[in-house]
Design goal:
Elements (H helix, E strand, L loop, with lengths): L4 H11 L13 H10 L8 E4 L6 H7 L5 E5 L2 H9 L7 E4 L11 E7 L8 H14 E12 L6 E2 L2 E2 L5 H8 L3 E12 L5 E11 L1
Parallel strand pairs: 1-2, 1-4, 2-3, 4-5
Antiparallel strand pairs: 5-9, 6-7, 8-9
This protein binds S-adenosylmethionine (SAM).
Length: 204
C-alpha cells in the first residue's frame, strides 16, 4: 500500500456510510459458521477480527455468548461504528496498524476478511505473518478470506492481490496446516458479485 493506511482508511470511513461500502455484509454468516466450528463451541476462546472495521461480526459473536472478542482496525471511525453496534459492550478494541502491532497476548482464532489482499508487496506480507505468528496460539486457527483469482483487481481505490486456496496456504507458510477452503460469492450493496476465496488453517 503506497499511502499511509491510517490516512487512507480514515478518509474512506469519513466519507461513506458503513452500510454503503462494497464489503458491507448485513449478515456475516460465512465467517460466523467458520469461527463457531473452529472454536468448537468454546465461548471463552479468545477471538480477534483483524481489520474488522465497522463489521457486525464482532458484535454478533458477543451477542452469541462469546466472552473474549477483540476487533483491531487502523480506523478510529470504523471502530466507533463497530462499538455502537455491540449490544453487550464487551468487545475489546485495538486501534493500531496491524503491520506494526505488538500483540500482548495470544488468540485461539484469527479472522481476516478482506484485509490481507491489500498487501501487495512481500515486505508487508512478511510483516503480517510475523504479527500472526505472535498473536495466534499454537493449535489456534486462522480464518482468512480474500478476493479470489476471478475477484476484483481493486477495492476502495487500492490495488489488491488475488488468491486461490493453495496460494493463501502458501502465503501462511509451513507453520500452518490447511484444514478447509472454499469460495464465497459476496453481493455488494449495489448487488454486484465479488468472488472470495476463504481458507482455515491451524498453527502448529
Ligand atoms: C475492506 S475492509 C474489510 C472490513 C471487515 N473485515 C469486513 O469484512 O467488513 C478493510 C479493513 O481493514 C482495515 N485495514 C486496512 N489496512 C489495515 C492495517 N494495516 N491495519 C489495521 N487495519 C487495516 C481498514 O480500516 C478496513 O476496516
Amino acid at each position: 500500500m503506497s499511502q499511509d493506511p491510517q490516512h487512507h482508511w480514515e478518509d474512506v470511513y469519513a466519507h461513506r456510510d458503513p452500510a454503503e461500502v462494497s464489503w458491507y455484509q448485513a449478515d456475516p454468516a460465512p465467517s460466523l459458521a467458520l469461527i463457531t466450528s473452529a472454536v468448537n463451541g468454546d465461548l471463552a476462546a479468545p477471538i480477534i477480527d483483524v481489520g474488522g472495521g465497522a463489521s457486525i461480526l464482532s458484535s454478533r459473536l458477543a451477542a452469541a455468548g462469546h466472552t473474549d472478542v477483540t476487533v483491531l482496525d487502523v480506523s478510529r471511525t470504523a471502530l466507533a461504528a463497530s462499538r455502537a453496534q455491540d449490544p453487550t459492550g464487551t468487545v475489546q478494541q485495538v486501534h493500531h496498524d496491524l503491520l506494526t502491532w505488538k500483540p500482548q497476548r495470544r488468540y485461539r482464532l484469527w479472522h481476516d476478511r478482506a484485509v490481507f489482499h491489500f498487501l501487495t508487496g512481500p515486505a508487508d506480507r512478511d510483516a503480517y505473518r510475523a504479527v500472526l505468528d505472535q498473536a495466534l496460539a499454537p493449535g489456534g486457527t486462522v480464518v482468512l478470506a480474500t478476493f479470489a483469482l476471478d475477484g476484483p483487481t481493486h477495492c476502495s481505490g487500492l490495488e489488491v492481490a488475488r488468491y486461490d486456496a493453495a496460494g493463501l496456504a502458501a502465503e501462511l507458510g509451513d507453520r500452518y496446516t490447511l484444514t478447509a477452503h472454499g469460495r464465497h460469492d459476496h453481493h455488494t450493496p449495489w448487488n454486484t458479485v465479488q468472488h472470495f476465496t476463504w481458507i482455515t488453517a491451524t498453527r502448529t
